[in-house]
Q: What sequence folds into this?
């Protein structure tokens, strides 16, 4: 694949600046090239590679936890036999999308956005970036700022303090900072955690380690799913890729929604079904209720998916085990538990979660006044009240993230088209409805969410301020509903005869 835009090719003024070259930012670029072919835009990313999550995380077994027929873009069929895909397959898919939509020349890697200020007098953003390599700060301007930077802190994950950590004689690794080429062959490994990352790492490391123990404070729901989707693969053999993909996407979305609603409406039945499925995959007499029966209901937190039951197979083969206990302290040879038991370890992996960070930590201001995202309402789940010409993506927690990406990108393209037709130069959601009551953006009790939810925009009690985590409702609102809304104000600025130069200005 050809080289992306580098520090030698300088940024100037663009109509749309996309922050983030992961699945969301590349998706926005693809939508713009197909729906707004004359639109000038650029994609910037502070890292030196595209892919976001799928390039950042390098831990063993890294893969999707939902099927790629819904996690992929609606406009680009997923044609691999694997529905649950490894990171390298997802990266290949994203690279193909970049080439197919001629995005290489628009992507500027090594450009980290630090702050952005909207000028009402000029109807444009001034964005300050740090360029890696020379560490210079540069300013660029844009009419619309689109944040596709994800929801967590790329600089490091959540790594709680454990007493005695400095006493442990071996390496302690957080999955977000996995060392390249790390060899754990024949090692005794303890993985602390019980979420999606832990259940991915355990079976992957168990293939070469002497033994892997997943140490959890409390259980999570773990559900085995097939890595390959027989229906999707059959349809692909019988039908054109695009048609087979559309059918599979609808079937899988319906199945995901059905499982979610079934768990929420009939939690006791869902719990029994998941327990029974787990019991069939584990050795006779295994303590299922101790290690795989949480004290919360299914889908109160996200279910952990394991392809082809790989984790259960590793446990059944004796290559992996689960311990449910609390940590007293680290020792030189492992971990002392509150029960008095001691887990011997050569390597400790702290799969203890992420640190959430809205908008990649960008300092946003309007006319020099700082914007605190936690004080703002989210308009249609994609804009901030009181912030002009700004949009963002926050995907779904109860189905594939990218289902929301396509809807948001499509809606923003419709807004841009509407502005072109009417001659508008700005749009801004206005929170002036006194009947709207506020709630946290996510009603999700997971620890990593609750630690940082106050940093994120809030949702309102009724449209257009709701965030429903419901694809059908969002489709009706964002794709089928009108662009115009009483709470979305459009404005027109009289342009000067001579606009400022688009040349880059080095400020430090």
A:
């Amino acid at each position: 694949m050809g080289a992306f835009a580098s520090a030698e090719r300088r940024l100037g003024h663009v109509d749309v600046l996309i922050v983030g070259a992961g699945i969301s930012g590349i998706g926005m670029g693809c939508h713009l090239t197909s729906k707004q072919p004359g639109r000038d835009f650029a994609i910037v990313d502070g890292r030196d590679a595209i892919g976001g999550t799928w390039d950042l995380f390098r831990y063993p077994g890294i893969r999707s936890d939902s099927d790629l027929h819904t996690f992929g873009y609606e406009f680009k069929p997923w044609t691999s036999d694997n529905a649950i895909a490894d990171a390298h397959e997802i990266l290949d898919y994203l690279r193909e999308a970049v080439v197919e939509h001629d995005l290489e020349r628009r992507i500027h890697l090594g450009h980290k956005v630090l702050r952005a200020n909207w000028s009402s007098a000029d109807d444009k953003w001034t964005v300050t970036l740090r360029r890696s390599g020379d560490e210079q700060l540069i300013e660029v301007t844009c009419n619309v700022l689109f944040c596709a930077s994800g929801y967590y802190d790329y600089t490091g994950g959540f790594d709680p303090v454990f007493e005695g950590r400095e006493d442990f004689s071996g390496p302690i690794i957080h999955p977000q900072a996995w060392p390249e080429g790390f060899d754990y062959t024949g090692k005794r490994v303890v993985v602390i955690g019980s979420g999606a990352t832990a259940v991915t790492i355990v079976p992957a490391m168990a293939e070469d380690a002497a033994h892997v123990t997943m140490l959890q404070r409390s259980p999570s729901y773990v559900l085995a799913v097939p890595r390959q989707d027989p229906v999707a693969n059959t349809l692909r053999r019988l039908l054109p890729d695009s048609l087979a993909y559309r059918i599979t996407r609808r079937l899988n979305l319906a199945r995901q929604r059905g499982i979610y609603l079934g768990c929420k409406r009939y939690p006791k039945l869902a719990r029994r079904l998941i327990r029974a499925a787990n019991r069939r995959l584990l050795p006779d007499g295994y303590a299922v209720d101790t290690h795989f029966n949480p004290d919360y209901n299914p889908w109160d937190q996200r279910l952990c998916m394991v392809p082809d039951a790989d984790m259960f197979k590793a446990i059944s083969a004796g290559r992996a085990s689960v311990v449910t206990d609390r940590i007293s302290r680290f020792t030189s040879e492992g971990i002392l538990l509150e029960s008095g038991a001691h887990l011997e370890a050569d390597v400790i992996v702290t799969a203890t979660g992420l640190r959430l960070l809205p908008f990649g930590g960008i300092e946003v201001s309007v006319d020099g006044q700082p914007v605190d995202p936690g004080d703002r309402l989210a308009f249609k789940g994609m804009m901030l009240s009181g912030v002009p010409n700004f949009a963002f993506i926050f995907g779904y927690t109860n189905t594939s993230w990218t289902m929301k990406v396509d809807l948001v990108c499509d809606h923003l393209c419709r807004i841009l088209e509407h502005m072109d037709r009417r001659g508008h130069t700005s749009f801004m959601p206005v929170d002036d409805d006194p009947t709207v009551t506020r709630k946290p953006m996510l009603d999700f009790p997971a620890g990593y969410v609750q630690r940082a939810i106050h940093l994120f925009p809030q949702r309102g009690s009724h449209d257009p301020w709701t965030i429903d985590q419901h694809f059908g409702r969002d489709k009706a609102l964002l794709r089928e509903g009108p662009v115009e809304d009483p709470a979305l104000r459009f404005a027109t600025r009289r342009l000067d005869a001579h606009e400022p130069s688009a040349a880059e200005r080095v400020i430090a």
